[in-house]
Amino acid sequence: MSARATRGFSLIELLVVIVIIALGASLAVAWLVGTRPGERLDREARDLAGAFRLAADVARARQRVIGWQPQGDGYRFVSWQPGHGWQVFGERLGLAAQRWDPPLQPSRQPPAADTTTPWLVWLPDGEVVGAHIQLASDGARRTLAVDALGVSVTGRGR
């Protein structure tokens, strides 16, 4: 090979360097910008509101009674099975169990009578046994009001 052919970089080498620089820059921006304290809570509240809307649609479409139960580090959707009680439901329908990371502290108004029954229940005819679900984390709070008209999110703090 001549000296002229050995000088410079190949296209692959240049692309690898560009990808490395882009990854480093995106990580640096994410680290420097950070997130405001209530941003994660806003995202969780929006995701949960979307899951509640989906549960209402699935209850009507599948003619099933669907409930929502918070768990220690997340939540799950359940369905009433005559003779069997509440059974885990929805993995293939977009209603799979979810985890909060780090965990949030949900509460309910009116307060839940016990932990075995769902906090929210959607009926096949479009009715819902609703409540106000409050999510709290790091001093911030978001409230999801669930009723026959749908889901609304309000919040305060950070």
TrEMBL record:
Membrane topology: Single-pass membrane protein
Domain General secretion pathway GspH: 44-150
GO annotation, cellular component aspect: plasma membrane; type II protein secretion system complex
Record key words, sorted: Cell inner membrane, Cell membrane, Membrane, Methylation, Transmembrane, Transmembrane helix
InterPro entries the record matches: N_methyl_site, Pilin-like, T2SS_GspH, T2SS_protein-GspH
One Pfam match: N_methyl
Transmembrane segments: 12-33
Gene Ontology process terms (BP): protein secretion by the type II secretion system
Localization terms from the record: Cell inner membrane
Keyword Iron included in the entry's annotation: no
Signal peptide range in chain numbering: none
Entry keyword annotation includes Cell membrane: yes
Recorded family membership: Belongs to the GSP H family.
Protein name (record): Type II secretion system protein H
